[in-house]
UniProtKB/TrEMBL annotation:
<dbReference type="InterPro" id="IPR027417">
    <property type="entry name" value="P-loop_NTPase"/>
</dbReference>
<dbReference type="Pfam" id="PF13614">
    <property type="entry name" value="AAA_31"/>
</dbReference>
<dbReference type="InterPro" id="IPR050678">
    <property type="entry name" value="DNA_Partitioning_ATPase"/>
</dbReference>
<feature type="domain" description="AAA">
    <location>
        <begin position="3"/>
        <end position="45"/>
    </location>
</feature>
<protein>
    <submittedName>
        <fullName>Putative chromosome partitioning protein</fullName>
    </submittedName>
</protein>
<feature type="region of interest" description="Disordered">
    <location>
        <begin position="112"/>
        <end position="133"/>
    </location>
</feature>
<keyword id="KW-0614">Plasmid</keyword>
<dbReference type="InterPro" id="IPR025669">
    <property type="entry name" value="AAA_dom"/>
</dbReference>
Length: 133
């Protein structure tokens, strides 16, 4: 299963909005999409599902062992899972776990010179991993 983590160190950088648009685009392309709300404090993606009746399921999974839990929950039912992560500074264990299970990483940010600079060689939590960020 394709697994996309949308992550940033900070809150309020459009992670949930990005997840919503990514899920919508993949759903419209005919993929079986699972939205994963890993932010245990805000639960924004779950609120979207409750208020907007999204055409794809959203599950709450704000757990530090998400990389172990998600495959069992998703099984073969979905083509792609898109994970809305919490801010790294608030729930580091959950974010690192999301990065471990992810096949792809999206980092939303404002297109300002101070924010758009070359990232490090590897995403946080990937020390010793062979998978580049």
């Amino acid at each position: 299963m394709l697994t996309i983590a949308v992550a940033n160190l900070k809150g309020g950088v459009t992670k949930t909005t990005s997840v919503g648009f990514i899920c919508a685009a993949l759903h419209e392309a005919g993929m079986r999409v699972l939205g994963v709300d890993a932010d245990g404090e805000n639960k924004s993606l779950q609120a979207w599902q409750a208020n907007a009746d999204l055409p794809w399921p959203v599950v709450g999974m704000a757990v530090p062992n998400l990389h172990k839990t998600l495959p069992g929950v998703a099984g073969d039912l979905y083509d792609v899972a898109v994970i809305d992560t919490p801010p790294m500074e608030a729930q580091k264990g959950t974010v690192v776990s999301a990065l471990r299970v992810a096949t792809h990483l999206v980092v939303p940010m404002a297109p300002t010179p101070i924010r758009v600079r070359p990232p490090g060689r590897r995403a946080p939590g990937h020390q010793g991993s062979e998978r580049p960020a």
